[in-house]
Structure to design on (262 residues):
């Protein structure tokens, strides 16, 4: 069905939408905003929730929240017993002053984060940022500024967005703390997946530099990320931030991988 063609004063042809096309547009918008509204369905099982919660009660109770068990007081990872410094972070993750994660990286959380990062499930930033905000409040984080893990421009273009930027901006809106990009990635690196901790540190050398240095002096910075694996990325960024004048650096992530034995 076509609209009516009309010429404007410049001789350009414009299409005037018919009432039927306008109606179809309204129906499409209603379907997108209501029938397809992700807030109306559980992010895990898809069951109707029709509220402000992003997951149904059954799924929420089954999620691997780290608060349900013991974790390391420093890096926030799941541990068999409560520890001040676990074997994964002791003597290694020293630049980040405090790290916390909402979930253990297992089960359905792995799928949700994978969808969020690689399958254009941007709507999950609402669910994740809400969970991050609750943990932020519980842990009494009080940063001067929020930042996130940088990506190369070509990587952002390929993916369509930087998922950590979405999380950081959403958390900034909830907390009222300003969000800014404080570092940038200046060279491509190999994928970190499958690399051991030492290899990750080596892979990241020379890839990050500080920007907006004037925002750093004497400030406490909170880095937001999706997953803490070895902690190498956050450690490298934290070292750069402190060399740029930051007083202390915290890390808040959606999930973290449990004790790494190396």
């Amino acid at each position: 069905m076509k609209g009516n063609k009309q010429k404007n004063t410049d001789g350009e042809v414009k299409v005037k939408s018919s009432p039927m096309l306008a109606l179809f547009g309204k129906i499409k918008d209603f379907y997108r905003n209501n029938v397809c509204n992700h807030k109306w369905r559980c992010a895990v099982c898809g069951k109707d929730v029709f509220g402000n919660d992003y997951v149904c009660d059954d799924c929420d109770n089954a999620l691997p929240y780290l608060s349900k068990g013991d974790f390391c007081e420093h890096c926030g990872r799941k541990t068999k017993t409560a520890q001040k410094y676990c074997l994964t972070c002791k003597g290694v993750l020293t630049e980040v002053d405090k790290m916390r994660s909402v979930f253990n990286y297992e089960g359905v959380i792995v799928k949700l984060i994978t969808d969020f990062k690689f399958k254009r499930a941007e709507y999950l930033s609402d669910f994740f940022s809400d969970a991050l905000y609750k943990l932020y409040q519980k842990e009494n984080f009080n940063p001067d500024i929020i930042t996130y893990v940088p990506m190369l421009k070509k990587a952002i273009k390929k993916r369509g967005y930087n998922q950590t930027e979405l999380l950081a901006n959403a958390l900034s809106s909830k907390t009222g703390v300003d969000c800014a990009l404080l570092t940038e990635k200046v060279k491509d690196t190999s994928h970190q997946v499958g690399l051991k901790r030492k290899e990750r540190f080596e892979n990241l050398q020379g890839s990050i530099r500080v920007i907006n240095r004037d925002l750093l002096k004497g400030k406490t910075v909170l880095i937001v990320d999706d997953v803490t694996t070895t902690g190498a990325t956050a450690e490298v960024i934290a070292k750069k931030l402190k060399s740029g004048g930051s007083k202390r650096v915290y890390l808040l992530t959606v999930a973290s991988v449990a004790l790494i034995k190396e």
Residues 121 and 254 are 15 Å apart (CA to CA).
